[in-house]
Design brief:
Blueprint (H helix, E strand, L loop, with lengths): L2 H12 L2 E5 L5 H12 L5 E5 L3 H13 L7 E3 L5 H10 L1 E5 L1 H9 L10 E4 L10 H12 L4 E6 L11 H9 L3 E5 L4 H8 L4 E7 L3 H24 L10 H4 L4 H9 L8 H22 L2 H11 L2 H6 L7 H15 L15 H20 L8 E5 L2 H12 L2 H12 L6 H5 L9 E4 L2 E7 L8 H9 L3 E4 L4 H13 L6 E7 L3 H26 L14 H4 L5 H5 L3 H10 L2 E6 L7 H7 L2 E6 L6 E2 L4 E7 H10 L1 H12 L2 E7 L18 H17 L4 E5 L2 H12 L7 H6 L5 H4 L6 H8 L9 H7 L3 H6 L2 H8 L2 H11 L2 H9 L21
Parallel strand pairs: 1-6, 1-7, 2-4, 2-5, 3-4, 5-6, 8-13, 9-11, 9-12, 12-13, 14-15, 17-18, 18-19
Antiparallel strand pairs: 10-11, 14-16, 16-17
Helix pairs in contact: 1-2, 5-6, 9-12, 9-15, 13-15, 13-18, 26-30, 36-37
Length: 817
């Protein structure tokens, strides 16, 4: 380990806290060494916040170090007994949050024996997350174990008010360790052995400069128009400079999503236009001239012009379209003009670099291929493009693309196709083995890290620049002092690409400066770590502080013990935030697999929770009809909870939920109306978010009995309701369900074996007994059908949708002869 990595490791090993490090400076190495320390059967360490790819990377690195026992992966394939045995074996355990929450609530995990918890990507921990729920359950029963958290995204802590304080509160840690790139220890360590860096500042071609200027003018127009239309909104972050950064979408989402339903149609279109123009600016340097012209040409249609907020009518837009065509056909405006294809300046520079590498190797007399070259580009498409250029010639490649673009069978999608598996294949260019690897988009996010340390390249060509990889090369050179690395840094001078890179550096630097100031003024309570019983998160009292002050402590504790509230929760609901908030309000959670409903509040109240997207999907598929039918059948007070996101508007409109088309909104509301008409017992509860839902559930439970988990688990839904929903006539199905003796267990047999109502009337009591497999039900049905009053009504005319249709059964098919 390097000096700063060793110091980072010792700091977090000795003190619980949150480590925030700059991207690419080796946080993974510190985390792996921490896993190595705790990989012992005498410890039980839980790891949170990792993905499957990250878990595979950590385990492979530990395996290469010879660590035993290796961390274990727990998945849903493990049975309850298997998981309990894994917990008792000890060691480091990777598991999903849902499995850990359920096992903790059901006391399947020995929480008091846990050595500690490691949290990866801690910037994602918020109060309502599953990881925060796990840490709260852990700290309630374990006061001695450690909690150590890691994050390599300092910019994430700048959004919102005191974000780092709130994250540390959810993590139950007191100490904050900051490791920016300008840290004195990091600077001194990396300066000792720096790679040989050659910067190649390439000028844009005159056509590219014209196109870039035109696009920037259009972005400036869109941003200015957005500010003019919405003077009341805080749009300080909505600048041309930020529009060039990679986090532009996150900035828009953070500022506009809560008020999206209040924005005008033109504002929404301007936001969409900004995304389109930003993509064009990125494509200018990534795409070849032919593909870029095809993309720009696809925008120049009457339909697209009517949808835009007006930028296509500007002179800059006309310059964009004409110049994009000029890069392919030159200054000729004829339709069948001969192509005059413009090469990308980086292609020429890349070819010259490869020849320079070959000449240097020949001059030094080194045997090839002992020296390897690594080329990194933006994505798989660019890697595929560079591979073809190195294998052939840039002009041949452009002519090939031009021929494809003018063939009728081709399309933009075909041109953009690339094979990700080819991204790590080597190509022979003047006998050198060259590895071309994408910076992003690969199936394995650690593929670039593995290739860098396994390949040990002498030459690294950065066709596209990224802050994290630049630092990875610096750290690699500091570790491998015996391998001299030469880095060729390619970027366009005075371009949006350069500005985007500089903006990302500036945003990270400002984020660390803000964190340093906040750390200096941060007020941390003594009980932040939750090692005492009087921590406010563990009181679990939903009342206000003024109400709690009116009741003595001992009386309040006794009353809470006597009236402990319980809610039965379906296992699948632990993907949502609601169970965590219910537990925080002092309500005990019983996770059980239940088929009818999602939450059982009382013996009579069953709740089916639907988010907006799930509601629309359930209404379209008919699944909500079946679920409502089962709830009304088994519970006295069935409820449909429609829960909105607390960060989004509380309204059934807007692009984020439905579409801007009014017919879509009308369709959803009309279906909800039909649902309430069909099931009068069903109550619809509207909630603006999970916090409000938790409060509603608490109010609904006041003064009522607690649910029976055994009874809730025993209620099963009918399998045929979803599978055979379209097989039977719904009107006849509902009519039959109203007859005495017919229930959910025997209606399918009746509808399958009896053709129509006439045949049902002709059956004897013995035949009904055989059909229904129950004497009592058969007697009730026979008496109802053969009562003189009922018989006269049934024989008078058909009922339901088959009224007046002769010769058809109640399944809507012709009768068999």
């Amino acid at each position: 380990m390097l000096d700063f990595e060793n110091q980072m490791f010792l700091d977090i090993l000795n003190e619980d806290g949150l480590v925030v490090a700059a991207k690419g400076i080796g946080l993974e190495s510190v985390f792996i060494n921490l896993l190595k320390v705790y990989s012992d059967a005498g410890n039980l360490v839980i790891v949170l916040g990792t993905t499957s790819k990250e878990e595979e990377f950590f385990i492979s690195e530990l395996e290469s170090m010879g660590v035993k026992p290796l961390p274990k992966l727990l998945s849903s394939e493990f049975s309850v007994n298997d998981r309990q045995s894994v917990y008792m074996e000890g060691g480091v355990i990777f598991s999903s949050s849902r499995i850990l929450v359920v096992d903790m609530l059901m006391d399947r995990m020995p929480i008091d024996l846990i050595t500690g918890v490691l949290v990866y990507k801690a910037h994602r921990i918020i109060e309502t997350s599953q990881e925060a729920f796990i840490l709260r359950l852990y700290r309630q029963k374990n006061k001695k174990g450690f909690i150590k958290a890691f994050s390599s995204s300092p910019v994430s802590f700048t959004r919102g008010f005191s974000q780092v304080t709130r994250v540390m509160k959810s993590l139950y840690v007191r100490h904050l360790f900051l490791w920016p790139r300008f840290h004195a220890t990091i600077q001194s360590t990396l300066k000792e052995n720096q790679p040989d860096v050659i910067e190649l500042r390439l000028p844009l071609t005159p056509y590219m400069v014209t196109i870039q200027t035109a696009i920037l003018d259009l972005i400036h127009f869109s941003v200015k128009e957005l500010r003019r239309i919405n003077p009341s909104l805080d749009l300080d972050e909505m600048t041309v400079e930020n529009a060039l950064s990679k986090c532009f979408k996150k900035i828009i989402k953070f500022q506009l999503e809560p008020v999206w339903h209040q924005l005008s149609g033109k504002t929404k279109q301007l936001v969409e236009d900004l995304g389109t123009l930003r993509n064009l600016l990125l494509n200018l340097t990534q795409y070849d001239c032919v593909t870029f012209n095809v993309v720009v040409k696809s925008l120049r249609t009457t339909e697209r012009a009517l949808k835009t907020a007006g930028w296509m009518l500007l002179d800059a837009a006309e310059n964009l379209f004409l110049t994009a065509r000029a890069r392919v056909y030159g200054k000729s405006l004829e339709e069948n003009a001969k192509p005059d294809l413009e090469e990308n300046p980086k292609w020429t520079a890349l070819t010259e670099i490869m020849k320079e590498i070959r000449l240097e190797i020949d001059a030094q007399g080194e045997v090839f291929p002992s020296i390897k070259t690594l080329i990194v580009a933006e994505d798989d498409r660019t890697c595929h493009q560079l591979r073809q250029i190195l294998e052939s010639d840039s002009q041949d490649f452009l002519k090939k693309i031009f021929t494809k673009s003018n063939s009728p069978k081709d399309s933009i999608e075909k041109q953009e196709q690339s094979n990700p598996s080819e991204a790590v294949e080597s190509v022979e260019f003047i006998r050198e083995p060259v590895i071309i690897q994408p910076l992003k988009g690969a199936a394995d996010p650690y593929a670039l890290h593995r290739i860098l340390y396994q390949l040990c390249p002498r030459f690294v060509i950065m066709y596209d620049c990224e802050v994290a990889f630049v630092r990875q090369v610096e750290v690699y050179q500091a570790i491998h002092k015996e391998h001299a690395v030469r880095v060729y840094f390619l970027f366009y001078d005075a371009s949006a690409e350069e500005q985007s890179y500089l903006t990302s550096l500036r945003r990270e630097k400002e984020a660390f400066e803000m964190l340093i100031r906040e750390k200096a003024t941060m007020v941390i309570p003594e009980d932040r770590e939750g090692r005492t019983d009087d921590h406010p998160d563990f009181v679990r009292d939903p009342r206000k502080a003024s109400e709690m002050a009116l009741v003595p402590l001992d009386t309040r504790q006794m009353s809470r013990k006597d009236t402990r509230q319980v809610v039965v929760v379906d296992m699948r609901e632990f993907r949502s935030e609601l169970p965590s908030l219910l537990h925080r309000r002092g309500i005990d959670i019983l996770p059980i697999t239940i088929e009818v409903g999602d939450y059982i509040l009382t013996p009579d109240i069953c709740v089916e929770r639907k988010s907006l997207n799930d509601l629309i999907g359930s209404l379209n598929s008919g699944r909500l009809y079946s679920q409502s039918q089962e709830m009304c059948r088994h519970y006295v007070k069935p409820m449909l909870l429609i829960e909105f996101d607390h960060d989004k508007p509380f309204a059934l409109q807007g692009k984020y939920y439905l579409s801007n088309d009014a017919s879509s909104l009308t369709d959803v509301t009309s279906r909800l109306q039909l649902l309430t008409l069909h099931f009068p017992k069903l109550r619809i509860v509207w909630s603006p978010g999970p916090y409000a839902t938790a409060e509603i559930f608490e109010e609904l439970k006041k003064g009522r009995d607690q649910p029976d988990p055994v009874k809730a688990a025993s209620i099963s839904s009918d399998a045929y309701t979803e599978k055979n929903a379209e097989k039977y006539n719904p009107a006849i199905h509902d009519f039959m369900m109203k007859l005495p003796g017919i229930n959910s267990k025997n209606i399918r047999r009746v509808l399958n074996k009896v053709e129509d109502l006439g045949q049902l009337l002709s059956l004897s009591l013995e035949e009904l007994h055989e059909l229904l497999e129950n004497g009592t039900n058969a007697k009730e049905l026979w008496d109802a059908l053969h009562s003189s009053q009922h018989l006269a009504v049934l024989q008078a005319e058909p009922t339901g949708k088959n009224k007046g249709k002769k010769g058809k059964s109640w399944r809507g098919k012709p009768r068999r002869p």
